[in-house]
Amino acid sequence: MTLSNTQRTIDAIWRIESAKLIAGLTRMVRDVGLAEDLAQDALVIALERWPESGIPDNPGAWLMTTAKRRAIDFIRRTKLRDQKYVEIAHGIDLYSEEDMDGALDGEIGDDLLRLIFMTCHPVLSQDARVALTLRLLCGLNTDEIARSFLAAESTIAQRIVRAKRTLSAEKVPFEVPVGEELKERLSAVLEVIYLMFNEGYAATSGDHWIRPLLCQEALRLGRVLAEIAPHEPEVHGLVALMEIQSSRFKTRVSSTGEPVLLMDQNRAQWDRLLIRRGLAALERSQKLGRQLGPYSLQAAISACHAQAPTAAETDWIRIAALYEALSRVTPSPIVELNRAVAISMAFGPAFGLQIVDELRAEPSLKGYHLLPSVRGDLLVKLGRFDEARTEFERAMSMTQNARERELLMNRAAECESEASK
């Protein structure tokens, strides 16, 4: 394996393992900032050693063991929490490669949920919670997070540093709360898990369009949360949404890794078990008898796609109505953009284009690549290929995902070919 290939492999391993690593270390040192530093130390050691020694059979176990040794060294060196050091030294064994896989499904896995509840504490602002989630749980760097916020990288870096310091200064407990405290933090936790799932479903940047392992972890956490809070309809709504969306993974990319859009996917290959689980979770949400919230409404939209035998049989009028309901519950430009797509499918592209054109003046969508991408698609359907090509090229310049950029480039080339006929 060449040095560049090793580097790419290590980067991929870090994206997969970093959240579990930070969660496990936070349980040890009770300081999320210190935990991230220790995890980064383990990564640096891996970058130094693995190109020569080769990547170990279980890189996650190697990183965890290395980071835990650094944690113990730090505690010993600074004489921090002497009693805690004794507990760690005598009560917690270092993970071996053989037992790591089992451990991830137990205590380590639960640590991720504790970390989410910790970072969703009300001492942090919503922006701080989102930035910290993208950093710790999704493995994005500050530059990638800054682009998603349409903010300066230095601003995001300061926000993340302040958030970690606040959690430490306020001694926010590393635990899943119970009772009213759990309910008070639940909406923030759901938002974080949803954000985590979305980053896996359509990666912000990188060479791959999807990150299935991140989605699987978000779905697992959602299922655990549904056991903890069985009477909260939006928990079941989010689980339903993630189950149904996950059913499409095999068809979201081609054999060569290229994105495959929803209307072009082979529905016979959708995972029917995940769809059934999603529909059952949606039914549980609806049976709790409250007005459907944003996750349940999005799950209902996904259910419309899942229940349509073919793309042509999709009930777009119902989907448009569900997006209308969603826009009332959680009004946002992105919901409005999705509503425009549904309306265009139900009533024609001209109606959808009218909504999209109104959204072009929305400041929050200034750097959002899907706005020109959707507009380009509607222009293609109206036969306005020159304008559509310009929109796809604009979208291509905005996205940071290599696979999505290729898709948009191909669509722009197709428009140029059609325009020249």
Overview of this structure, please?
Residues 115-167 form the RNA polymerase sigma factor 70 region 4 type domain. It comes from Paenibacillus germinis. Residues 23-79 form the RNA polymerase sigma-70 region domain. InterPro entries: DUF6596 (IPR046531), RNA_pol_sigma-70_dom (IPR014284), RNA_pol_sigma70_r2 (IPR007627), RNA_pol_sigma70_r4_t2 (IPR013249), RNA_pol_sigma_r2 (IPR013325), RNA_pol_sigma_r3/r4-like (IPR013324), WH-like_DNA-bd_sf (IPR036388). Among the domains are: 1-101; 315-421, Tetratricopeptide repeat domain (Serine Threonine Protein Phosphatase 5, Tetratricopeptide repeat, Alpha Horseshoe), CATH 1.25.40. Helices cover 73% and strands 1% of the residues. It has 21 helices and two strands. The chain has a two-stranded parallel sheet. It starts with a helix and ends with a helix. The model is unreliable at 89-109 (pLDDT under 50).
